TrEMBL record:
<dbReference type="InterPro" id="IPR045091">
    <property type="entry name" value="Mad2-like"/>
</dbReference>
<protein>
    <recommendedName>
        <fullName>HORMA domain-containing protein</fullName>
    </recommendedName>
</protein>
<dbReference type="GO" id="GO:0016035">
    <property type="term" value="C:zeta DNA polymerase complex"/>
</dbReference>
<dbReference type="InterPro" id="IPR003511">
    <property type="entry name" value="HORMA_dom"/>
</dbReference>
<feature type="domain" description="HORMA">
    <location>
        <begin position="4"/>
        <end position="196"/>
    </location>
</feature>
<dbReference type="InterPro" id="IPR036570">
    <property type="entry name" value="HORMA_dom_sf"/>
</dbReference>
<dbReference type="Pfam" id="PF02301">
    <property type="entry name" value="HORMA"/>
</dbReference>
């Protein structure tokens, strides 16, 4: 399988996970989601044009970064309230791994792992307190300085530029962290670990 194909497969999985987080945590009303069946699992996908556009641009960048087989990448979904009050973070850590694609030629194990990850996520977050109506989210991509420089000079990303995050004094304050491992997917040449931090 080509690295472009593998990156597209992972970008689709990340899209499903991002949408799933937004749905199960109630960041947006359930009415803006449409039920679909992906990975033989019922999932809810955003059906709101402005939000779809934002997520599509994020995923296009992630897919571009994943096309480099040596790239390690972390994608963090940060849920926050008014005054940028940090409520929760969901961290997807992605690392390239050696994988024998012939063993999972039809991506059956990959789909099963992702389906299990979605069910685990829903199960783990159902005990968390509900978010208020002021909940918002943003996506941070943790990557190398080289990858950031390449993105910032690439003409196709000028309409959706990425900014280097500055250290926020609020982020430097000591906080309690609860790391809950959600799932590990290690098929099709990528190891993806998901954690909740809050």
């Amino acid at each position: 399988m080509e690295s472009d194909d593998i990156a597209a497969i992972h970008a689709e999985a990340i899209e499903v996970i991002l949408n799933h987080i937004l749905y199960v945590r109630g960041v947006y009303p359930g009415q803006i989601f449409k039920k679909r069946r992906i990975y033989n699992t019922p999932v809810f996908i955003v059906a709101f044009p402005a939000l779809n556009s934002y997520l599509a641009n994020v995923l296009r960048t992630v897919q571009q970064l994943l096309q480099n087989p040596a790239q390690q990448l972390k994608l963090e979904v940060i849920i926050y309230g008014n005054d940028a009050e940090h409520m929760e973070s969901y961290l997807l850590e992605m690392q390239p791994v050696q994988s024998d694609h012939a063993q999972d030629q039809y991506l059956m194990e990959y789909e099963q792992q992702l389906s299990a990850a979605l069910y685990k996520l829903a199960d783990r977050v159902k005990h968390l307190p509900k978010l208020g109506q002021n909940a918002k989210f943003k996506v941070h991509i943790h990557t190398t300085q080289t990858a950031f420089t390449q993105l910032s000079h690439d003409a196709q990303y000028q309409e959706f530029p990425w900014l280097q995050a500055s250290a926020n004094p609020q982020q430097l304050e000591p906080r309690k962290f609860a790391l809950l491992p959600l799932a590990t997917v290690d098929k099709v040449g990528l190891k993806m670990d998901a954690h909740i931090c809050g």
